Description:
Largest sheet: 3 strands, antiparallel
CATH class of the largest domain: Mainly Alpha
Helix content: 40-55%
Shape: globular
Number of strands: 6
Radius of gyration: 17 Å
CATH topology of the largest domain: Arc Repressor Mutant, subunit A
CATH architecture of the largest domain: Orthogonal Bundle
Order of helices and strands: HHEHHEEEEHE
Strand content: 15-25%
Distance between the termini: 44 Å
Amino acid sequence: MADDRLERILELLRTQGGRLTTSRRAIVAALLESGLHVTAEDLAEHVQAAHPDIHRSTIYRTLDTLAGLGVVDHVHLGHGPAVYHLTDQPHHHLVCDACGAVVELPARALSALRRRVERDYGFQLDPGHFALAGRCAACAPVG
Length: 143
């Protein structure tokens, strides 16, 4: 399944006009291996552990290129560094102010809000860049 997902993502990269270099393939594979959200720094360490010849600057430039092509998004999940995730499984984020837990929402969960904001205020909301902050069930006050 991971190989199928890798090939789908690489095909998306191809169709968006991106070149398929060894570095890009390694970076996309590392994004898949690393899980859902990874900082650029953590990704660089992961990639360089397997491919020491891929320079850190190449990893950062590739992340920027992949973001520009719509293959990855970066999101701010609170006060720490931005994290990256692949766009082939669109979602939004909730982050708990108390414990830092991150909850993923399906993209459709905010569709009604996006439509209402556009209708009522003439504003096209882009909720993907930042997490919505609040309290998770474990940290929310009872009562």
